[in-house]
Amino acid sequence: RDEEAYQREIGYPGYEAHRKIHADMVRYVLQVTAQYEREGCNEQLMQQFAGKLLAWLINHVAAEDQRIASYAIEKGVAEHGC
Fold first, then answer.
1. What dihedral do alpha carbons 41, 44, 26, 80 form, nearest 10°?
2. Which of 58, 68, 72, 81 pairs with 41 at a CA distance of 20 to 30 A?
3. Can you list the pairs that 6-10 forms with residues at least 24 positions away whose Cβ atoms lie under 8 Å?
4. Which long-range contacts (CB under 8 A, 24 or more apart) does 21-24 make?
5. Are 22 and 4 in contact (CB under 8 A)?
6. Sequence-separated contacts (24+) of 52-59 with Cβ below 8 Å
7. Tens digit of each residue's pLDDT (9 = 90 or more) over 37-52
8. What's the predicted TM-score (pTM) here?
9. Measured distance CA(30)–CA(80) in Å, rounded
10. 10 near 75, Cβ under 8 Å?
């Protein structure tokens, strides 16, 4: 939420697309949570979840979040540790 609020604050043009990426990941986490609650501890599910989460975090920060930082720097609005 903080990241999305920051994007709105600086007028980041990719806000809607970025918000969708976040919403899709939240939806995936909720689906895995529901499956876990139905089936209990499932090693394959946990490995898939951990792998996807790790890859998503690395790729998201390395690509998507860097675009926000570049935009903020270009516009001279880099604050909040960006």
1. 100
2. 58
3. 6/68, 6/80, 6/82, 7/68, 10/71, 10/72, 10/75, 10/77
4. 21/60, 21/64
5. yes
6. 52/28, 53/29, 56/25
7. 999 888 999 999 999 9
8. 0.74
9. 29
10. yes
